Structure formats: C-alpha cells, structure tokens
Automatic annotation (TrEMBL):
SUPFAM superfamilies: P-loop containing nucleoside triphosphate hydrolases. It comes from Polypedilum vanderplanki (Sleeping chironomid midge). Keywords: ATP-binding, Membrane, Nucleotide-binding, Transmembrane, Transmembrane helix, Transport. Belongs to the ABC transporter superfamily. ABCG family. Eye pigment precursor importer (TC 3.A.1.204) subfamily. This is ABC transporter domain-containing protein. SMART domains: AAA. One of its GO terms (molecular function) is ABC-type transporter activity. GO terms for cellular component: plasma membrane. Residues 71-310 form the ABC transporter domain. It is a multi-pass membrane protein.
Length: 651
C-alpha cells in the first residue's frame, strides 16, 4: 500500500513536471491525466498510463516483430443474398487501399458504412461473398499462413468470465505456446503484457468483475501472448469513457510503433484520439471517402472545396459528410477524388508506400512461419479440460444449480409418490411418475444447454479463428468436462427418488433405472447442443420444447404402443423417450412378484397384466439401452459436424 502511495506521489511529481512541457499535444494530454487525478481516479491505472510507452516496449523486448506485414487490397467487394429475393445486396463496392506496417490504422465511417464488413473481409474472419484481391506483402493472401501472424479481437469481449485475469492469460499462453516455451518464459510474458496494459494489479480479479475498459484490454492482452504481427480490432473503444479510449489507443499506437500493423474500426473519435492514427480509412455507403494520414484530412477536404469549418473536429466533419448530411453529391465527389481507395497522395509519406512488386522484393518468400501449429492438439485438449474443470467448479448455473434442482425435484416427486413402488393400487401412478422423470431429465438438461451454449459458441468462434484450438479438441473437452456433473446430478436424483418411491432394492433394477436416466440426460444434452449450434437463444427456446413433443407422443404414454396408428408406428422406433420409458418399465416391473394391495380391488396387482395392457415387453431393456446408446452416438456425431459447419458458415 505504501509502495503504491509512494509511486503515486512520484507519478504526481512526474505529471507536474511533464505538464510544464511546451509541446501542445503533450500539455493537453497531461492536463487530461491531471484532471483524472483531481477526479479522484489516481489509481494504478494512471500510473500504468503514465508509464505505458516504456512498459509496452518492455513487454515485447524479447518478442521482436517477426517480419513486418503490409496489407494491400484492390477492388474488394462484399455482397449478401437478399432475403426473399434472388438479387444480392452489395455492402462493399470495389474498395482498394494500402495498410503499411508499423501503422495504427483506423477504419472510420458512420454506422452501417461497412467498417466491420471491411475489417472482417481483410482479416479473413469472413471469406464467403468476398471478391477482389487481398495482398500480404505483395502476394495474394494465403489465409492459413496469414492467420498464423494475426489476431482478431471482436467488439464484444468474448472472455472466460469465471477465470481470473491471470488464469485467462495462462490458458492463452498454454494453448498458443504449448510446451515449446518454458513456464518461466510464459510467466515472464504474461507479467510483461499485464503490466504494459495496466492489468498487473488486477491479475487475480475474476474476469466478470473487470470494468468494460479492463475487459477490452484483457482481450488484447490474450492475443498478444504469441506476439502477432497484425492486430485486427473491431471497435476497441466502444463503451469506454474518454480516458479509457485514449489509453486503449495509446497502447495500440505503441504496438504499431514496434512494427506491427494495427487496424481497428472506430465510430467517431475525438480530435485528440483522431490525431493518434497514422492512417485513416473513411468509408461511406461501402465506398472509400478518404485514405491518408489523420493530419492530412483537413488539406484533403480543402482540396475538394469542402473545407472543414473552423473549431470543428475534422473527424466529426468527415463523418457528417460521409453520412450524407451535406448531400450525396459530396459523398460522390470525395469518393472520386480518392479513387475509392486507389489514391495514396494523402499518406504521411506517399513515396514510402511500396508497389506490389517492390513489396515482393522486400519480403522474399521465406520459411513458413510455425507458431500455434507447433502445439499438439492433445496438449490443447489437456489445457481445455483444465480450463473447463475450473469453470465447472465456479459455475453457479451449470453446476451448482443443476445439482440443486435435481435434488429438489427428486424430493418433490418422491414425496408425491412416496411408498407407491410396491402398491398394487398405484401402478398407473408409477407409470405417470416414470414419464414425469423422463420429462424432467429432458427439459431441465436440454433447456439449460439451449440457453447457455449460444454464448459459449461465440467465444469458440473467436478462439478457433485465432487458432487457439481446433473444433475437435473443443468438442471432446466440452463432452468430457460435462460428464462428471451430469453423472453426479443424475445419480443423486435417481437414488433419492428410487428410495422415496420404494422400488425394489435390487442392484440390477437400480442400475438399469440409472443407466437409462443417464442416457436420456445425455441425449437431451446432445439435442440441446444441436439446437444451440443452429439457433440463437430465442429460436432455440421455442424450438426445443416443440421438438420434444413428437418424441413424447410417440413414446407410448397416453396412446399405448399398440394403439398407435399404423402410419405412425415407425415413429415409436425413433423416439428416444419410447426406449427410455420401456427401459424404466422393464427395470421396475419385469419379473416382479404380486404387489401388495390394501384397497378393495387392485387392477394391476400382477405387474404382468399391466405390461400386457401397455403393450411393452419388459425383457427388452437391454435392447432399449442399446438403442439409447446408438441415438446418443448418432446425435453427438451430428452435433460435431454441425458445429464445424456453423463455423464455416459464419466465415
Ligand atoms: N449478412 C448481412 N445481410 C444483410 N445486410 C448485412 C449483412 N451484413 C451486413 N449487412 C449490412 O451491411 C451494412 C454494413 O454493416 P457493417 O456491420 O459493416 O457496418 P458498420 O459500419 O460496421 O456499422 P456499425 O458501426 O454500426 O457497427 C449494414 O447496413 C448492415 O445492415
């Protein structure tokens, strides 16, 4: 604490000294910092901010930029199929441009101009429906090779919220660097990056408790661990206050100054923020309006007789022009003047912008970069399982609530049917209970998966694109991690209800009852995953129960199997609930002795009579278990391929 106070004092002194500098820009910035202090935000972040340039340099002194990467693109278009129409909607219209290395580049424009679309197309995050040529160091982009040197940071912070900052960094380091880098070096890198991005003091904070700005910085920190050469960031300043915005851009600028190419989309930067960009690419209606250094925007506008009004932020004025506030003819004029991104006159140093052939000469074909590819999938699987175990332990909904709900429902149902397991007058009630148990297992598991998986899916999309792991590793890890909780909650449920209802205390009967329950839970989970993979939460919540209804109708409950119409008989063979119900009936009524009967008349005193009436063969439970295992495997395989397909489709 004392140390922090002492460094605060040093910082205050440093700030006071540096605020006296004559340089205009710095004076403003230092004033800004002082204002922050006066506001009472003199915390570790301010110290980091003051020291960030050297800290960022220090963070990467051991990780020099491998080879600078220059990105050029020509006539890039992006179009999508219109809904309910055969025509296509063009979102990007043959835009061109050059993004040199060592630059902090802003793709700007009003909302809907196509900023994210351009970022996605150039980074390779989207490949379908993109046309035109994208060059990397003068050669046509080889996406697989290019992705080894880049990272994509999405607008919404898709982070593992139940891990601390350090744990998140450690997982990223283990997944990306594997065993090729020693633990000491990994920890050194983590420490340096966290210090550089002002997160060192928060390393043991749970990610869900971080502020918006800290979460954004953590997103960057995670991707910096393997020292990418190109950083793509979709709106890294959205949702941040002006100080955090400035801080984020200052960090990115430092990363660019070390030779990286840092490209981000940004809505409407303040004048101070705008100055920080080495290159600004302004879009309007999918076309380029300006491409050049931030300081040259005003002369450019002057040159096309659209002078920026005095005391007006040039960035604001450019966005107003791009929005068409001053007429669509102005948009057209600007677009023509800049050649839709072909013109490089307004770059800081146009003579330094190399042609494609020059770039090829400058960067001859070298050895293929080997980065995350070096880490084996088995190692990644281990790390993913470790991460999953930590998350499972801390997850209030998926673990604690699931176990609690299973115990609670078992007690409630058990109470309702207490002691009925040996009562000849309550055989039908037992049959109803079996169906209720099936419904509980299906809905509680399926709905939870439908509600939670779509969020997880978006994280997987980003991490998979950034080459953290393959879909296969993720899928296997996800399946394995969940099994212990599924097993435990199902076991607790089965034990409680079995004892309370008073079914025969025979190990083989209980085993069949439990195995059938477990398989039904796992099938419901697989169905939930399939729906969660294909749909968003709203559609999934609607679709899940609807899809469960036919399986319920064809299970032999309500309408017995023998009463099913001929044309629907096949349905009972594909209904997993039919096998579940038959399995339960077999486990609990097969070869039972005469049941006790305290009433005047017990219609089903002899369980065989009941089995005959519902047209179920009780000795078929092994077939039922085999059918359930087959259904489970089939659904799991379908789910894996759907997830892969979903990832391909999202690109
Ligand atoms: N798959 C799609 N189908 C139909 N229209 C689309 C699709 N993807 C993007 N668009 C449209 O393309 C335009 C550009 O979208 P984009 O997300 O790139 O804009 P943006 O400039 O990043 O906007 P914002 O700053 O608001 O995020 C928008 O009008 C959007 O509605």
């Amino acid at each position: 604490m004392e140390l922090i106070q002492e460094s605060n004092l040093n910082t205050i002194a440093a700030l006071s000294m540096s605020a006296m500098k004559v340089d205009n820009n710095h004076t403003t910035i230092n004033k800004h910092v002082q204002t922050e202090y006066v506001k009472g935000s003199m915390d570790a972040t301010v110290i980091d901010y003051q020291h960030s340039p050297s800290a960022v340099r220090a963070a990467f002194h051991n990780m020099p930029v491998c080879e600078p990467i220059e990105i050029s693109f020509k006539d890039v278009s992006y179009s999508v199929q219109k809904m309910f129409s055969k025509t296509r909607k063009e979102i990007l219209h043959r835009v061109s441009g050059n993004f040199p290395s060592g630059n902090l580049i802003a793709i700007m424009g009003p909302s809907g101009a196509g900023k994210s679309t351009l970022l996605n197309a150039l980074s390779g995050y989207k490949t379908r429906n993109v046309s035109g040529a994208i060059y990397v160091n003068g050669r046509i982009r080889d996406l697989n090779e290019f992705k080894k040197s880049t990272c994509y940071i999405t607008q919404d912070d898709r982070l593992q919220l139940l891990l601390t900052v350090y744990e998140n960094m450690k997982v990223a380091a283990d997944l990306k660097l594997g065993n090729n880098v020693s633990e000491m070096e990994k920890n050194g890198r983590i420490e340096n990056i966290l210090t550089a991005l002002g997160l060192y003091d928060h390393q043991h904070t749970m990610t869900e408790r971080l502020s918006g700005g800290q979460k954004k910085r953590l997103s960057v920190a995670l991707e910096l661990i393997n020292n990418p050469t190109v950083l793509w960031l979709d709106e890294p300043t959205t949702g941040l206050d002006s100080y955090s915005c400035w801080q984020m851009i200052a960090y990115l600028k430092q990363l660019a100054q070390q030779g990286r190419t840092v490209i981000c989309t940004i809505h409407q930067p303040s004048a101070k923020l705008f100055e920080k960009f080495d290159l600004v690419y302004i879009l309007a209606y999918g076309k380029c309006l300006y491409q050049g250094h931030s300081s040259k925007l005003v002369p450019f506008l002057q040159s096309v007789s659209l002078p920026c009004p005095k005391f007006h932020n040039p960035a604001d004025y450019a966005i107003e022009l791009a929005s068409g506030d001053y007429g669509m003819d102005k948009v057209k004029t600007l677009c023509n003047s800049i050649g839709n991104g072909e013109c490089i006159t307004w770059y800081e140093n146009p003579n330094r912008v190399m042609k494609l052939e020059q770039l090829r000469q400058q960067y001859p074909i070298g050895e293929e970069r080997k980065k995350s590819d070096d880490v084996s999938e088995l190692h990644k699987l281990k790390i993913l399982i470790r991460r999953g175990v930590i998350k499972t332990k801390r997850d209030q909904t998926l673990t604690h609530l699931r176990i609690f709900v299973n115990i609670l429902v078992a007690i409630l149902l058990g109470w309702l049917f207490i002691g009925s397991g040996t009562d000849g007058s309550r055989v039908l009630a037992n049959y109803n209970l079996m169906f209720a148990i099936l419904i509980h297992h299906v809905f509680s598991t399926m709905m939870l998966t439908i509600l939670t998986f779509p969020t997880e899916k978006s994280t997987v999309l980003r991490e998979n694109f950034n080459r953290w792991y393959s879909v296969k590793s993720y899928y296997i890890a996800n399946t394995l991690i969940d099994f212990p909780v599924t097993f435990l909650s199902c076991l607790l449920f089965s034990i409680i209800i079995y004892i309370m209802v008073g079914w025969p205390m025979e190990a083989d009967r209980f085993s069949v009852f439990f195995i059938v329950s477990l398989l039904i839970v796992m099938i419901a989970q697989a169905i939930g995953l399939i729906i969660g993979t294909c749909c968003n939460v709203i559609n999934g919540t609607f679709l899940g129960p609807i899809l469960a209804v036919p399986a319920m109708m064809l299970a032999g409950f309500g309408v017995t199997l023998k009463d099913l119409p001929m044309f629907l008989k096949w349905g009972s063979y594909v209904s997993y609930l039919r096998y579940g119900l038959e399995g339960y009936v077999g486990a609990l009524f097969y070869e039972r002795e005469q049941l006790k009967c305290d009433a005047m008349y017990c219609h089903y005193k002899y369980p065989d009579k009941f089995l005959k009436d519902i047209a179920m063969e009780a000795d078929r439970f092994m077939h039922d278990i085999a059918a359930l295992i087959f259904t489970l495997l089939l659904l799991r395989i379908i789910c894996y391929y759907l997830l892969k397909w979903r990832i391909v489709l999202s690109r």
